[in-house]
Amino acid sequence: MFQSLLSLIIRAFDRDHGMTDSKYFTTTKKGEIFELKSELNSDKKEKKKEAVKKVIASMTVGKDVSALFPDVVNCMQTDNLELKKLVYLYLMNYAKSQPDMAIMAVNTFVKDCEDSNPLIRALAVRTMGCIRVDKITEYLCEPLRKCLKDEDPYVRKTAAVCVAKLYDISSSMVEDQGFLDQLKDLLSDSNPMVVANAVAALSEINESSASGQPLVELNSATINKLLTALNECTEWGQVFILDSLANYTPKDEREAQSICERITPRLAHANAAVVLSAIKVLMKLLEILSSDSDFCATLTKKLAPPLVTLLSSEAEVQYVALRNINLIVQKRPDILKHEMKVFFVKYNDPIYVKLEKLDIMIRLANQSNIAQVLSELKEYATEVDVDFVRKAVRAIGRCAIKVEPSAERCVSTLLELIQTKVNYVVQEAIVVIKDIFRKYPNKYESIISTLCENLDTLDEPEARASMVWIIGEYAERIDNADELLDSFLEGFQDENAQVQLQLLTAVVKLFLKRPADTQELVQHVLSLATQDSDNPDLRDRGFIYWRLLSTDPAAAKEVVLADKPLISEETDLLEPTLLDELICHIASLASVYHKPPTAFVEGRTAGVRKSLPNRTIPSASDHDNNVEATVIPSQDSLIGDLLSMDIGDINAPAPASSVIPQQHSNVDLLGGGLDILLGGPAPTAVEPATLNTGNGLLGDIFGLSTPATTMVSVPKITWLPAEKGKGLEIQGTFARRGGHVFMDMTFTNKAMQAMSGFAIQFNKNSFGLVPGAPLQVPTLPPAQSTEVSLQLNNTGPVLRMEPINNLQIAIKNNVDVFYFACLVHGQTLFSEEGQLDKRVFLSTWKEIPAANEVQYTLSGIIGNADGVAQKMTANNVFTIAKRNVEGQDMLYQSLKLDNNVWVLLELKLTPGSTEGTLSLKTRSVEVAQMVFTAYEIIIKS
Amino acid sequence: MESLFIINSSGDVFLEKHWRSVISKGICDYFLERLKNSNDVVPIIPTSMNSTNLVSINRCGVYFVTVCKSEISPLFVIEFLHRVVDIFVDYFNECNETVIKENYVVIYELLDEMLDNGFPLATESNVLKELIKPPNVFRTIANSVTGKTNFSDTLPVGSLSAIPWRKSGVKYTNNEAYFDVIEEVDAIIDKSGSTIFAEISGEIQCLIKLSGMPDLSLSFVNPRILDDVSFHPCVRFKRWETERVLSFIPPDGGFRLMSYHVTSQSVPIPIYLRHNIHLKTGEQGRLDITVGPKTTLGRTLESVKLEILFPKSVVNCSLVTTQGKYVFDQNSKILNWDVGKIDVQKLPNIRGSVTVMAGTTIESMPSINVQFTISQLAVSGLKVNRLDMYGDVKYKPFKGVKYVTKAGKFQIRL
């Protein structure tokens, strides 16, 4: 009480003594400008200052006081710092509109840059940088150069920022005048605040640089300086430093570890921006650290508490944190798997926080916490906020689909919610129940009657369409299905197109199931659809049904009542490559929008996309020779190996690939799986008219006709030259026929006598290849050749070879034993069963750590994406999906080697270019080079 | 950060500050468009103008909207804006439309001093107050007499030292150091009274009035319970990691030394509600709530307040309380019951009837927000062990530690 009284008194006092600024608005009449003009030219200092204040106050609220420019500039020559500052504020705002007048100020600026007071020097150089007038900028260079070397760190740090300002006005001037080098020198400044500002300025210049290429390369030495400054500079400087650390990829694991150690203390900073930027750096470095190390495990553990802490900050901070957590949870689900409870919604959370929390809850839901999640969701479904309630109901449906054992409980929860009769809850519930029916057919149909009771209350198209779909799908179990559908038909014209389409299909289904008493109904709906509708989709579908029904009812049945593809469990997951890119952008706008910067920043080229560090492989040129040249090891060492293989049953180590993703038996082509890749919403309950299965349908969608091309055949090369084979020359190659690898050889006898008694043996090799039959070579007279084709099995002992596809062979004849080595062509090892289900592809891609990703640049590609896909399919590399991203074709492909190693690939092609980028993920990275070589061969064929 | 617009709740832009070139306030339309639909505007929205974005916060009924370039860290902007408001509050004791309008010039100067070209310049209140003196009755009189300004013409000492948060040459006749351990219990309690979620978020607020450059170290009896901490920049993290001691050179005046979360142990719930609420369409509903202490370690629950949010279909209620007053707001459908202190002998109770509009469905369940305070108790059990002082000081300060527990976001679902 006393306090408020006091403040009242103070305010009254203030008013009397002219302290508050509101009085500056009292004069709004015509003569205002004139009056200010005369005050500005007053002799009295105080009056002048008051007048400038009035001008500033008008400016603050957006009034135009530019007419006073010369009068205000006249006040600039003063030793009163506040007045000077006010004038500078004015100049910054209006110089642009009065460039000729602004020149008047230049002299004072230049003089102030030499002032003995560092505050004035800094202020002058700072203000000059803000005046975007070319003539003034010209005069800025000399003072700026001096200020960058000023003895006072306050001036230096202000000057550092000024370089960034200047770059924005004229990048060429900054480059020509050598300011960039001066700025780089400041990275080694003794004052951490100066270092931080230099970093900030440099990163801003990098961002806006036209080439998109960083102007300053970070190396270990600069990184060290930054890490030192990190400990001492202000919180804002720390953000700048952390953000530029995130752009550095350490050269090895040790360096990564040491950077991690020096950054982790930032996780306990009070400033949320520092915390999140530190998390970005750590998430990126985690990619480099081997995932099974203790260090990595401890680090992962340390990430959870700061993320949780962010959630008890202001709502705005929570929102940004939640958007980022959404990414982190998709990338590394382990970090927050025990933190479900912090995402529980409080009813006074702002709606944007509520919706984000809900989304993360679903992502974290699993069998062990589903009970908790469900009871929360049920609470939310009775909240006040309608949008939130709807999303909560949908979330229950997502749980049912994601966590199979909980489906029953989810369904009963939904039923309870339907009983509340709250209109929008009922409608949402019906929409999600339709999805549950699609996921678990023939399981929960007992609830249909309850659903039907609510038919009349449905007024939203999506809910009506869902209900109609349910009636049509289960027409045989709903006694009065015909009446129900008939009642919908009365207002057919007024329905939304979505509902109309559903009605059409549902009635046709009903007719096919109960033809006896529904003939009239179906005719009615067909005529409504084909004759009275303007909607081409509806008309077309109507005609197709009509024709099907009239020509071949059996076929109609097969089409309309075909088994529905199942819907997938995880919806709206981000595509893995996009997710990886966004992880690099944690804490930035991209992480909030969940879009790469290219999507919302103009003039950004695709060239500067960030990506997580990869293990890379030397380029193709080094390996090209290997394709032709046969590696012949010294004979001595080989003999030992070959002898030992006679013993045979030495337990060779199993191939590194022990984990094989389970192929799902059900094929989901049009359902969710495809949508994940295409990023669209699940098509609502519209049956794909599908008679085909598997590949056929995929082919239809992507326009891939049945493969016309055949497998590539690689010409034979000389494996054993005659001079080494005592006259026996062997040329050979590998091929795949009927699911088996064949070794096709030509034996030529260049000696003077006949050869006979041929036999063959393989050394242990990476793929366990052994001859499937004895070598059948007839006696070979001199100067004669014979063709031999030997089928190989992969049942032999396994030994890791280098390169992986190296095969050492011994051939015996009546003359001698010859040893040679050759390379098995990768493509001949690609199994016919290499097609992955899309969902499995997606989840496997996610599961395989990024360290197992290898990239490769393909060159000399012939043909477009479809052509390439066709060639690949012919060689057992299966295209799972194709999409177009920013003009580039992305092919998602899978293949399986005969030894059950799965390889997942992403091929990026730019139309018109003969180069392409191939990203490969597999649990056995050793096979990468072999696969790349195979790709080269196939693609050039 | 390019520009800042300050907007009131009716959507008028009443202050604009541009750090780079002037941007028309028309850009705020993207924000205002969303403000029309809901008061909770998403803090980050894209615009179609030069790929800029609007980052905003809402505090004290005022929206602070900044125009940002593409690749900025939004948290950086949000944290900065909150800092700006903190500084305003620090200068003017409060921060609302009136205060801002009354102090346009100081605010403009402050904004200019805090940010240069999108880079924060000085955000520590210590440094700022040396550059721009806060308005003060006596100084105004003095200035008008002597012709001085309230703008400093020397560079603040602290602005560049390794300890920017403390100015040098601080002198007090009475040297004092106060520490307030403030803990808030955040909880969601379900219908049956069992805890769905609970955590303690605590902080240590300091008021340090010590001369010279004191170097303090604060130790706890039981530092183990602090598993998730964030510190003021003055705290030396290494010593905390190794010895679990807070070692720091404090800023002058009031500041938050650290904040922490306790989730590892089971959180004691200090209050319970016995409730019986029956709502039915077209009938008189019943409401009967009794409040009592649960785990308070013998301390008294004070300033207890209940805020009950009823569904829209509730029209009115007529209730009787044994203690404290209640108010029902028909627009927001919120029932406020100011209970006050809880006497264990006679537990406060509120009961009576609730009128539900006929012919409507009850679309949501009521929920209760509870507030309470318990003084001289840190519910986590955290206890300060001792405070030692080093550095160039030759005086014995007065030291004090206070504990208090409050309800944070404490909700009971019905």
From TrEMBL, chain A:
It is found in: Endomembrane system. SMART domains: Alpha_adaptinC2, B2-adapt-app_C. Residues 715-821 form the Clathrin adaptor alpha/beta/gamma-adaptin appendage Ig-like subdomain domain. InterPro entries: AP_beta, AP_complex_bsu_1_2_4, ARM-like, ARM-type_fold, B-adaptin_app_sub_C, Clathrin/coatomer_adapt-like_N, Clathrin_a/b/g-adaptin_app_Ig, Clathrin_app_Ig-like_sf. It holds the Pfam family B2-adapt-app_C. Its main location: membrane. This is AP complex subunit beta. It comes from Polypedilum vanderplanki.
TrEMBL record, chain B:
This is MHD domain-containing protein. It is found in: Membrane, Coated pit. It comes from Polypedilum vanderplanki. Residues 174-413 form the MHD domain. CDD domains: AP3_Mu_N. It is a peripheral membrane protein. Its main location: membrane. SUPFAM superfamilies: Second domain of Mu2 adaptin subunit (ap50) of ap2 adaptor (SSF49447), SNARE-like (SSF64356). One of its GO terms (cellular component) is clathrin-coated pit.
